[in-house]
Specification:
- The complex is a heterodimer.
- Chain A is mainly alpha-helical.
- Chain A contains seven helices and no strands.
- By secondary structure, chain B is mostly helical.
- Chain B is about 80% helix and about 0% strand.
- The chains are: A mainly alpha, B mainly alpha.
């Protein structure tokens, strides 16, 4: 029974949660706090704060953690599958169709015309990260770190993993 | 086969561990692994995966990892990619919440998250530029500006859902009569 509840609790946000983490959080809260009452609003807030402090997608961390605490490792697996699988299967299916007709001029045109749309979405994300950064660490630090990032990654071709690592250290010791 | 599983594991382990700031921050990291490092796909395929991924609900990072894993090594590839992406931080989270949950409010944790944002912005910006540059050579400046401008207005100012916009463009191109002039 708990497995079925966990499945539903994460299946619904997985299907409705367009646009990544931020759109997903209130949906999970609705299921976990208000529908099933597995935790209080403040416990949910605590978990959200920790999930935000760790890397990787927020949705999977929430699903794995809530599933684990409600029903152990099988609970975590059920929650994650409910979250991930439906849209992944659909994705593999759609990409399969696209690849079958990969060489047709229409699919070629599709790729060409979709690219600027993706560029817009990435540009907007870039802007959001910059503006979030300004409100969290201020304009001067943002400018400094962005400048450093451009020089190290784009000019000096240093591997982004190292630059991210360095930024984390800088954040912990200088900004912390 | 063994080597592929290991590569998939390492690729998405790095994406998971380095992807601070939620789903979008993992996009340039996935690009780095799948296109630049392991060359499982070219930048065009990546754009297609991203477009279809954005059309569908659910977290973007798991859709990309699951699909790329599948494309490289079938169902097992999907499983390896998802486990590598998701498991390390879930374990970390369970361990931390059962031991020292209060650390999330320490100022140095906030500092880390804050400092990584501009770096993610640089990576996303560079990816954006890559797509624009590619578009310029494939459809030319004028059509690029047209689609870019229209998408910006529709998505940001009219707040239309990207899934609808992408699906609309897909349908338009698939259903319109064979073009008289080909972009090639």
């Amino acid at each position: 029974m708990i497995y079925w509840q966990l499945f539903l609790a994460f299946f619904i946000p997985g299907i409705l949660g367009y646009g990544g983490g931020p759109s997903f959080i209130p949906l999970v809260e609705h299921e976990v706090v208000h529908r099933y009452g597995w935790m209080s609003v403040s416990e949910f807030g605590e978990i959200l704060a920790l999930a935000n402090a760790l890397p990787s997608p927020i949705a999977t961390k929430m699903a794995g953690y809530v599933g684990y605490f409600e029903a152990g490792i099988p609970g975590a697996i059920v929650s994650l599958l409910a979250l991930i699988l439906p849209s992944l299967i659909f994705m593999i299916f759609l990409m399969g169709i696209l690849y079958r007709y990969k060489d047709s001029p229409k699919v070629q045109a599709l790729t060409d015309w979709i690219r600027p749309v993706i560029a817009v979405m990435l540009a907007v994300m870039t802007y959001r990260f910059l503006s979030d950064s300004v409100s969290s660490i201020g304009p001067i630090q943002t400018l400094f770190l962005t400048g450093m990032g451009i020089v190290l990654i784009e000019r000096m071709r240093i591997h982004p993993a190292l630059v991210i690592g360095a930024a984390l250290l800088y954040g912990a010791f200088v900004l912390g | 086969m063994r080597k592929e599983y290991w590569e998939i594991f390492m690729a998405f382990f790095r994406v998971g561990i380095l992807g601070y700031g939620g789903g979008p921050s993992s996009i340039p990291l996935v690009h780095m692994e799948a296109v630049t490092r392991y060359q499982w796909m070219d930048s065009d395929d990546f754009a297609d995966v991203l477009a279809i991924g954005n059309m569908l609900p659910g977290p973007i990072a798991t859709k990309m990892a699951g699909y790329i894993g599948y494309q490289v090594a079938g169902i097992m590839g999907t499983i390896v990619a998802l486990v590598a992406l998701v498991l390390p931080t879930i374990i970390l989270m369970i361990v931390l919440l059962t031991t020292l949950a209060s650390f999330a409010h320490e100022p140095w944790v906030g500092g880390m998250t804050g400092a990584v944002m501009p770096i993610v912005a640089v990576l996303l910006g560079s990816l954006t530029w890559g797509f624009l540059d590619k578009s310029r050579t494939s459809i030319g400046w004028s059509r690029l500006i047209l689609v870019f401008g229209a998408s910006l207005v529709v998505l940001e100012f009219f707040d239309l859902h990207p899934a609808i916009w992408i699906a609309g463009i897909l349908l338009y191109i698939l259903l319109k009569p064979t073009p008289k002039e080909d972009p090639e």
